[in-house]
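Standup notes, protein team

Yesterday: finished cleaning the Austrodecus longispinum set.
Today: ribose-phosphate diphosphokinase structure.
Blockers: none.

Input for ribose-phosphate diphosphokinase:
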Amino acid sequence: LQGFFDIPVDNLFAEPAVLKWIKECIPEWRNSIIVSPDAGGARR
């Protein structure tokens, strides 16, 4: 993505925010499974 801009950009990660939301909004989060919508996301 950075290659499309002529200005400096930062790579921001959503994982901390998503984990916080899961822990706050899903009471049984420890018994949950998260799946990837596509094969490319599975390696992340």
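Follow-up from PR in the comments: Residues 1 and 10 are 10 Å apart (CA to CA).
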